[in-house]
Predict the structure of Beta-mannosidase B.
Amino acid sequence: MLKVDLNGHWKMQEVGTSEWLDVQVPGSVMNDLLQYGKIEDPFYRDNEKIGLEIAAKDYEYTRKFSVDEEFLLQDKILLICEGLDTLAEVFVNEQPVEKTNNMHRIYEMDVKSFLRKGENEITVKFNSPTQYIQALQEEDPLAGVGDAVAGYPYLRKAHYMFGWDWGPQIPDMGIWRNISIQAWSSAKLDDVYMTQVHSENEVRLDVRVKVERLSEADNLQLTVSLTSPEGQVEVKTVPVSDVQEIITFNVENPELWWPNGYGKQPLYQVEVSVLDGNNSKLDTKEYNIGLRTIEVKSVPDEFGRSFEFYVNGLSIFGMGANYIPEDNLLARNSVEKTERLLRDSVEANFNMVRIWGGGHYPEDYFYDLCDRLGLIVWQDFMFACSVYKLTDEFLDTVKKEVADNVKRLRHHASLGIWCGNNETEEGWVHWGWPQDPMRKTDYIKLFEYIIPEMMKELDPETFYWPSSPTSGGGFDQPRDPNRGDVHYWEVWHGLKPFTEYRKYFFRFCSEFGFQSFPSLKTVKTFTIPEDRNIFSRVMETHQKNAGANGKILFYLSENFLYPKDFDSLLYTSQLLQAEAIKYGVEHWRRNRGRCMGSLYWQLNDCWPVASWSSIDSFGRWKALHYFAKKFYAPILLSIEEEGKTASIHVTNDSLEDIQGRIEWKLRTNTSEILKEGTFEAKVGKLSAEKCIELSFKDVLSDENMRNTYLEAVLIMDEEVHSNAVVLFVKPKHFEFVDPQFELDVQEEQDQFILSVQTNGGLAKYVELDLEDADCKFSDNYFDLSKGDTKTITIMKDSLSETLSLQELTKKLSVRSIYNTY
Ligand code: BMA
């Protein structure tokens, strides 16, 4: 296989102008214009409008490259475009090669007849995506979300680029993935597909290989090597016949791959090569695989219909969040940024991420990271919240998109489920779309017939689920709380109180969420001081969910006192969000067994915005992410308070039965102990127990409820494993006292150690922060009683800049809810 890499230096211009810019490919139009200062930062203040101005025009990219005689002599020469966004016309030496209409596809174009020896030229012209969809939408309108440019379901381009209820309307375009020309003769690897059969202490790995070969090629050999995590290599060689070859390895004592929290992530390497008669390699492909089974079981049971992930036969409680694209300008994505995001997910004890259907299929490195980190991937196909019209042309491109991506991703250890779409069945049933029977039939055809039929061929090993949420399909009550997965939005969109979560025992809650503002540091990046009021035009531009700033204020009025300033409002909004999600997750984890998963909406942001994310677009952890680290801990103590009673629960998602001591204290606002108790608790592995029910009817009056709280800790091997504090009234009615913080900072070689104490009484939601610098605290937004010392570490490598002990101490601030009013 010979290759001419076309990544790198290209020229770009707006069609019809004459100023060519020197740019990098892969890249994007808006990123290029931004680099040259031709446009302002579209994320700053209300610059978002630039997005649609740019997207209304056409752009072209061009470069020269050369090929030699040997290259031209090859039998097959293919231009391979791994990602063209989206309406591209490709020319080689001014001759039209192909037109594209799907950014999710990998295009292979035969360019042999267009090339000449020496210098050649390639030009890729991108036509305006907005003009295209507007024309089709005018002819025959398709329903979709109101926050996006109408007509977006017509184009196989990531929907969120056209706007979403957290995303700006910035539909960038360009050559967003690798581009190259590859040439070959005699043979190349066409398709490699691996399956595993697990039995006791053995895994049979079948590597199926299809070789594409030209008629005259014979004496071809196929070699496949399997390298264990320890580096032991087994090689098998077979002659290539005309049919698919199956090379089998029997791996004894396999090292199994497990999701985070359940074991390690050993990876085996598979290398497949086709060799010619002289034993020289014609083509090679490499894969990292994990030996594991992942099944999803959704079967009728006493509650309705289950929804449960099994890994290596073990039933796993899915814990994680929904992932959206990381930027509107795809050129700014990087393996480093994604690695940080996914490592932060693992730090918060995730074992799963759901790739939501309104974005794009992530890069290979995303899945490599999930393989290495133990994150099960819930993979939506890229359809969301919209009506699709299944014309022949649309169906043709969708089928190719499905095949391209399934073949690209099916070998990953982390791949747990394929899901047809996001909320499209629910849209049909609940969102008041015109009930056009043709389009409804299109839905069933695509998601319940065509794609599942393709999956039987392409990846029968991975479970396919037609939509999220669904009870199984066929427009049969997709919101049924007792069947399949559920997106629950009555808290937030329905303005119901957090307590509403406790009314449901969803089988798997794949979406639920609550918005907050990003921190002041992030807000400062897109505002000037005059903008820093949540109802200002600029703040509203960075809030895409209609009326949502009012919603935050509504929930605020239910829970907290009116905050004294803008920054306190941002902080309290994050506390509301963290409390809401914790309320739901703890409840579902207490009901482990009936409910088997919670994925909150949403992990990340694609720009600085008020949203449901737990990590903002700068990678800053909101209060929710610190909360997630605690509420997703494998061993979790939680308190379910109700009036003047409280029960203490322990959820044990570890693989060991546990035994520990639970200590509880009923305390006043100044942390005096009114009542206390200690007891031993035993909780079996992979289960949840209500350990004790406490009634405080004798001690709690309507008056002292306002200054009394319950605290409980789970101690195992003399170490606190999990702790909880509950109030018996809303925080706004609790009589907090001035905590009078005392802070001490010590420096060690790799870390700073902070000790926090309060001299007044209970400090709730204690937030540590650094002025004009970032770092990760080992814990944050915690509760602290008088008399206790909280020790927090800051690893030095998590600091955004090098700081001395003195500088860090100067930048360090601490506050709690008491300090917001
Ligand atoms: C769900 C998601 C997204 C949306 C979010 C918040 O519907 O699937 O479409 O952004 O809720 O409204």
